[in-house]
Fold each of these.
Amino acid sequence: MGDIVVLVKPSLNPDMTRSKPDGTVDLDAIPLKLDDIDANALEAAKELKNTLGGKIIALLLLPWGPVQKRTRELKMVTQEALARGADEAYIVSDEKLLPGDPIITATVLSNAIKKYAPNASLVLVAEASIDQTTGQIAGRVAAKLGLPFISYARKITINGDKIVAERDVEDHIEVMEASLPAVVSVTQEINEPRPPTLLQIRRAGKKPQKTLSAADVEPIPERKKEPVEYKILTVSRKQIIIEGDTLEEIAEKLIEALEKEGVL
Amino acid sequence: MVDAIIVASSVQEVKESLSAVSSLGDVEVLFYGKNTDNAAEVAKLGVKVYVLKSQHPGALFNAVKKLYDEKKPKVIVGYGTKNNRDALSRLAGTYDLPMATDVIGVEFKDDHIIYKRGFLSERAIATEKIPYPAIILVNAKVFEPVQREGSGNIEEITIEEDSVKLLEIKPKQLSGINLEDAEIIVGVGRGFKKKEDLELAFKLAELLGGQVGASRPIAADYKWLPEDAWIGISGKRVAPKLYIAVGISGAPQHMAGVNNSKIIVAINKDKSAPIFKLADYGVVADLYQFLPVLIKKLEEKKGK
Ligand SMILES: Cc1cc2nc3c(=O)[nH]c(=O)nc-3n(C[C@H](O)[C@H](O)[C@H](O)COP(=O)(O)OP(=O)(O)OC[C@H]3O[C@@H](n4cnc5c(N)ncnc54)[C@H](O)[C@@H]3O)c2cc1C
């Protein structure tokens, strides 16, 4: 029936946050990684692939520059997406699109889907990313493509030309049904992504991938978000490890410390 | 001329959003969902209220779009609830509007908006600038709720849903515990091997007069606790005087929810777990050995 497009974000890895001497974030020094919940989206695509009968297309956009410096990291993220089940990858990478602005990102991704994945019957997007965590790309892309949208899916099943999803809202679950093609954002709970096997990693290198420039995905809208400052949040915790010869001793010392703090 | 439209599904959301846009002029409210019986309470804040008695995300999107088209507000503001994010990201995509989420501070200048929000899973704070018109979704409990008396009109609107069908609503099991108000919280993570073992954490919490919260996987994925125990960037943000994290690794998305605690204690068997750098007091131990001892010591003290 159709292909599955998975939007894959090479995100700044928050666990490798780096600071400049003035306390601002050293963006260029933080490495990129395949975003956490994108792994869930790829896993979901693998599970649905047989039912939908098409291939899995990973679509990446480099949101952090400089392009030159990010080439190797971008390649690694692409390889990982392919090892995690994508059959082919399109990678948009262009200095003109940096730094990522959700308006530009969503437009470029939508343009790329129309042009390079015209047979897509499903677009899967993570509920949010680890660097910006704004969770707005899926909804923007759905609006741009004019497709039905289901957000925060914890479970999806394909039923003929329909998709049924369990949508997580804070205090209840909504079972939603949409006609395909559709855009669906998935949550971390949707599955347990399996780490790629050695064989999958080796095969990934042979799968087709194509790098696109801004010119390939026009028209590009005007940038609206301007960074003013990115400042490291310093948490000044005491970081005292309580030690002792026995657990009893440690427990007593802990209770004593907490009493001194006035929190018990 | 309407300056701002608030999109909200509870009175508290309206009060805090009103506070966020207090420097702007005329404000109207789109009040939707399950609590619309409280619309009169919103109107008493002196704002015009449009009531949408639906919680269908497509209906909400259509309602927001209709109001946006008619009123051309400079700002749309609300909490970052899942329904708000769903509907407003679609509005943002429809008109290429800038949209800031998880906002913890905002200034409305003459020709632009400056806001602050978490960045890098809240390891950093971003300050960014966007033009009008824009969508601003604020974090809960950041803005002091507005208290005022007035009288606004209430107008019920009916809107078509979009093509997506809502087949069924399944309730979640919730504890109803207000973790946001708890003074002491014992947070449980994947260091616990099975649901029954959480009894240790409940025992500890009970002795301390506290509540039990959890990392996302424990509540949302394994469902060992009701989902209102979920603490973190996508769950609840708490600020107890004491947070005891047991078997929690210290992922930034979890810590974002507890960083306002006065004192953080970490109990983890891995001495290199990131949480020890984010805690005041750390105990490197197996929780299965340490918690019974800690509980015993606390009981002894209480007995005295
Ligand atoms: C967009 C996004 C949003 C997210 N939102 C949230 C959120 O709101 N809240 C949240 O919590 N997470 C959130 N997460 C998930 C987060 O990244 C982590 O995966 C999660 O917090 C890990 O939970 P944990 O610490 O319980 O488990 P783990 O990371 O698996 O840690 C378990 C810890 O237990 C220790 N341990 C194991 N056995 C024992 C033992 N016997 N005794 C003592 N210690 C032991 C281990 O050493 C380890 O450190 C989010 C992720 C993303 C991508």
Amino acid sequence: MHGRVKTRTTEEQRELQRIEKQKKVKLYLEGMNKAFEKRNKKELDDEALAICENLLVHNPDILTLWNFRKEILLEFKNSACTNPEIDLEKLVSKELYLTEVCLKVNPKSYCAWHQRCWTLDNIAPKPDWDRELLVCTKYLELDERNFHTWDYRKFVVGRAGVSAKSELEYTTSKINKNFSNYSSWHYRSQYLPLVHPDATGERPIDRDIHIKELTLVESAAFTDPNDQSGWFYQRWLLDLQQQLPLVLTQACISENFTWVAFNKPVCPNDTALSITGLGDGKWKTCNGETASHVWIKDTQDQSLISYEQSKLSLFVNGELKSDLELKLVTESNDQQKMIGFRKPSFINNLNSALVDFYSSLLESVISLLELEPDCKWPLLSFVTIARHLRFESSRAEIYEKLELLKKCDPTRKNYYDDLRSKFLIEDKLSELEDFTGVFDVSCMELTALYHTQYLSLFREVNLSKNKLGKIKRRCLGNLCNLQACEVLNISDNNLEVTKVPKLPNLVTLVDGKCLAGQKV
Amino acid sequence: MANLVKDVTISDSHPNTLLKDKHVNYLKSYSDNKEDYEYCMTEYLRMSGIYWGLTALDLLNESNEESTEAMMEFILKCVNDEGGISPSTGHDPHILYTLSAVQIAALLKQESKLPVQKIVKYIQSLQQPDGSFAGDKWGEIDTRFSFCAVACLSLLGQLDAIDLKKALDFVMSCLNFDGGFGSRPGSESHAGLIYCCVGFLSVTGNLHLIDADLLGWWLCERQLPSGGLNGRPEKLPDVCYSWWVLASLSILGRLKWIDQDSLTRFILACQDTETGGFSDRPGDIPDPFHTLFGVAGLSLLGTKDLKEVDPTFCMPANVIQRLGAVSQKLPSP
Ligand SMILES: [Zn+2]
């Protein structure tokens, strides 16, 4: 059903084709009837194998016929102990040959590939895995992107006990032959952390290898700056940092309402997580989903609001992961609450060796961009590297490059716009010292709203005069994190008020059309 | 080594409006001639074929002429002793066709006529100790089958019949460096399998486990200058991959990261102006499979006169609502 070009034919040709197809249909129906008849009578013999084979070579996707063959092969295998005339090796090699014939007809036939694995695992007395590895190598020379072949290789490698190191070397040789091969890079990403884990456990792979790998992909990507495979791999390597640990970022305990915010969405039902210092009561997500950045509970426990209770602790599997200091604040209406927050961190710091290397890499990308100023991939690479380095000097340039990217890759302009919005919000949040007053990101041409989990304590949030309504009927589910928000301004965005989720403290919703307060 | 973008060209000679009546006619007459070559040669996937045709017709606001009773009779004839459903009588049961049959029954509001407990037992029997699912008793493992299992159970309101935690762990073990998923741990990312894994997470309410920005970027990079989407880097665009990428982006709340106008143009160009139906690429022979994904894609893109499609189940949204099945979506950032 793929790649069959519709051709203009004459009446005469059509008639010939019709007759040809009729013949095929007849053969197919007769063949299937015979196969089903043999199967019903439980005649598990050579004739049955031949009937299936005749049908499968034309249509390798008839799974039931492969299954029938499996039943026959199992029968032969069972009888082989008592019947010396049965040559299992020969049966196996015939079966493997048939799958090869079928894979020529359809190299992506799931059932033919599975038949091969199944036969080797279940029928073959002594599978020849070395030969199978050669079959993979041969097939990958014919089509180096067939993911079935790569999967089969992985299966054979597992059975044959081939070392991860040797497979990593195989990908090196494939990449040296043709770096424009996404499959090889993918396969490489699997083996790299296995062969070169970081001795200290602080990083996903060994630091020197990381640098070496970035150098390898740099030379590949620079050879043809328009080739995407290498750049995808490079972006992965550039972002390859230890994941940020789960931390408590904000919390609030008030008279009738309590919430905590995390840097990642987590599930209140996850028994591995526990927070001390917050009394009893069951946590819920703030958005009704399985997991959320902000957990809420509405148990009332006055005793928690005191000068003594000043710290929350997050435990993961009983191990202390994160503390959050709380302080007592008195509101204008004399109500007291405990709140806490920490400065957000969006990315792990690079260690000094990597800073040096990333800096030199940035220089190379800049020189490449001097030659090809409108080339998408080096532009994106610049943005990624510069974002990691966080040099104050290149901050403005990142936004310039994103504008350029929108021009030279207009198909994905909305992606670049959202990336810009994300960076702007990160920059804004990084500058802040206080997370409880007013959060103002108006007039910034924002198209997306990232990191709302850091806005849970703000009393006032101003999103006005942005481009958030570029999406039709935009859902504003992200706003559910704004637990403390009393005044929310979404005006001049072309947003629908009805999409704003219920917020517990919201008093005034400014939507541009009217300034009337919406009492919730 | 030269980097040639594999793509197609779309010209003014290709159709640019929805040929609704032609598609209705194409789908309704597809099974008219039971001796037809195409029809016979696709017997091994008949149950899915019926699901493609029925769903496409429903999205086109048309009902099928074949009677509901006849359809249900066929399905019940395909249920085997263990509760699995085969593509056609005489063929072996498989989780792929079990899902298709449940989808058909749901479309026809006949799910209560199914032997639900038997089907649930069959699906349970396919779960492996590592949480993965086999397609049938012969043990092929694939994340497609993980999706089939939870989609099927969810439509039947029996999602807790399996070990969901382990099933989830297996799917997450197929996560790759690029944020995508493959068919087994270590397998390359592929739009079809990404759809299955994202769909799995959507059905089970676990979308928070995805790095939606990373995966969303990979998915929007599938769009080629023609507007069509491919399933992997350096591959040709295709209507079915367009659906898988589009549906995944929609579930992740990042549909706007692709150029929707040019994709609409690509899908419309894949219509067959003579026979009706959609093909994989402009100028190829149409089939019911690509016809469903063409229509469903256009529905997600907001084409007028089409019913709303649910991106997770690839079924009319009203059917999913009626059944109360979960299909989680992430809010747009
Ligand atoms: Zn296709």
